[in-house]
Amino acid sequence: MQGREGENRPYIEVEDLNKFQEKIEEYLEEYNVEMGNKKAMKLVMFLDACQHVSRIARIIRQPQGNALLLGVGGSGRQSLSRLATYIMNYGLRQIEVIKNYSMKNWREDIKDILLNAGVQNKALSFLFVDTQIIN
């Protein structure tokens, strides 16, 4: 997923929580249509999940914004981060660890991400999960 030059999605105060939840569900539906069946996320967007998406979006839109999300497996950290990244029109980069993945591959992947984010000034999120730690 690459950052899109789309509509400006401002971060504003929420007056009605039901409308807020509906808007997040609309973004999830847009994401699923755009990503297709392989990467579609079947999520139930209850109010707490919507608030987490909002927090993640607020964090990543800050200059040099980053977050460390903690929680038990299956709690939605990765999915909500993907959705927040989509909402903010950012690109998403994630390391794909394969069988013979080495430190050389890690350096190349990080170099590519840093060149895109730093040198080319592209808005992107780097999603790194604990299952991708080899050593």
Kindly list the characteristics that best describe this protein.
48% helix, two-stranded parallel sheet, mainly alpha, 135 residues, Rossmann fold, 6% strand, globular
Number of strands: 2
Q: Portion of residues in helices?
A: 40-55%
Cα radius of gyration in angstroms? 16 Å
Q: Runs with pLDDT <50, length 5+?
A: none
Mean pLDDT: 87
Record the strand order, biggest sheet.
1-2
What is the helix tally?
Answer: 4
In the CATH hierarchy, the third-tier topology is known as: Rossmann fold
Major sheet size, sense and barrel closure: 2 strands, parallel
CATH architecture assignment name: 3-Layer(aba) Sandwich
In CATH, what is the class? Alpha Beta
- Overall 3D geometry? globular
CATH H-level name... which superfamily?
Answer: P-loop containing nucleotide triphosphate hydrolases
What string gives the helices and strands in order?
HHHEHE
Tell me the strand percentage band.
5-15%
Q: Kindly, what is the distance between the CA atoms of the first and last residues, rounded to a whole number of angstroms?
A: 27 Å
Number of folding domains?
A: 1
Structural class: mainly alpha
Model description:
The protein is mostly helical. The protein has one domain (17-132): Rossmann fold (3-Layer(aba) Sandwich). The chain has helices at residues 17-39, 47-60, 77-87, 103-119; strands at residues 91-94, 124-127. A two-stranded parallel sheet has the order 1-2. The chain is globular, with a radius of gyration of 16 Å.
Q: Brief description of this entry?
A:
The chain has 135 residues and is mainly alpha-helical.
